[in-house]
Design a protein that fits this description.
- By secondary structure, this protein is an alpha/beta fold.
- The chain has one domain: HybD-like (Rossmann fold, 3-Layer(aba) Sandwich), CATH 3.40.50.
- The protein has 4 helices and 5 strands, in the order βαβαββαβα.
- Strands 2-1-3-5-4 form a 5-stranded mixed sheet, with helices on both faces.
- The N terminus is likely disordered.
Length: about 170
């Protein structure tokens, strides 16, 4: 039996950051914050985990100088609640309608597209959008969104390790 290999720590390619986005007082909109809190103790060494409310200028400033960014936010596309959408935003333009539930007039899609036009996107920008349904003030998170949290945490961990670990030849 071969010995179990120790989990390698990432080599810092540049600054790497995980950003959970949301409003904890608007039901499913708080899911990005909960995922970020779950990742805080599990993220590889050298990967920052922060929480944001989704305000565009703050988001762009948060990832300033980062090579790798993973954002987690609630979305509303009409898919079943709890569906997790993975978007490589460094290569794909974002559909504003996906983030239409935002409590700001401008949100994640606008921040990403503004950063793209200003040449301020990180090398890698992945967005994990968890499909929500309850976005009203003081509403609770729906069970499907709560059920998607563990899967999203693991998916984000896998993606961040893929993006920051050195390539083996």
């Amino acid at each position: 039996m071969t010995p179990r290999r120790k989990r390698e720590r990432p080599t810092k390619v540049g600054r790497s950051i995980i950003i959970g986005i949301g409003n904890p007082y608007r039901g499913d909109d708080g899911v990005g914050l909960i995922v970020a809190r779950s990742l805080r103790d599990q993220a590889p060494r050298g990967v920052a985990v922060v929480e944001q409310d989704g305000e565009p200028a703050a988001l762009i400033n948060a990832w300033e100088g980062a090579d790798v960014v993973v954002l987690i936010d609630a979305v509303s596309s009409g898919s079943p609640p709890g569906t997790v959408h993975a978007i490589d935003a460094s290569k794909t333009r974002l559909n504003r309608d996906l983030f239409r539930h935002s409590t700001h007039s401008l949100g994640v899609a606008e921040a990403v597209e503004l950063a793209r036009s200003l040449g301020r996107l990180p090398r890698a920008l992945w967005i994990y959008g968890i499909e929500g349904t309850n976005f009203g003030a003081s509403q609770e998170m729906c069970q499907e969104v709560v059920g998607a949290i563990p899967q999203t945490v693991q998916t984000v961990l896998n993606k961040i390790e893929e993006l920051v670990l050195p390539t083996r030849t």
